[in-house]
Write a structure and sequence with these properties.
Elements: E1 16-19, H1 29-37, E2 41-44, H2 48-56, H3 69-80, E3 84-92, E4 98-109, E5 112-120, H4 125-140, E6 144-148, H5 152-156, E7 160-163, H6 164-176
Parallel strand pairs: 5-6
Antiparallel strand pairs: 1-6, 1-7, 2-3, 3-4, 4-5
Helix pairs in contact: 2-3
Amino acid sequence: SDHRDDPDIFWVEPRLRAILPLDGFRLSQSLARTLRRGRFSVTCNAAFDQVLEACAAPRDDGEGSWISHRIQASYDSLHALGHAHSLECWQDDDNGERVLVGGLYGVGFDRVFCGESMFSRRSDASKVAMSWLVAALRRGGAQLLDCQFITPHLASLGAVEIEQERYLALLKQAQAS
């Protein structure tokens, strides 16, 4: 959609598709150190609504969100059916209360996970969520992590752009396995 209150939903099929090859995930030394130190606790599907709301919130740069209320309701329904999932990163605040500081969500089916959006309120929180997602997908035998569009953040983690035809072949292969 074009904005949060947009009633319309547009189908987008990019000519170049971003994927993160599960064997090509880049774990930098600093991110590995962050993971070893356990700065964040990570959960799965413990706060789907909160993650979705944080992803839909306006950005610090004033940009609006493509996640309209209608799209949000659709993902809520997919989550209730067991098809949409979230990973959440938590940290304790100064009062010792656990606070959601980052996460991501997406839709999983067959051996495919389509990442939809992520957010971070603390340095490395979304990277930690992605690290955990990649580990879970590898462990579960997934074959395709669809990121849709390339960003510098995703590229730094190993995401690459591929032609739509190649993407569709990988999707078909993952679904047939």
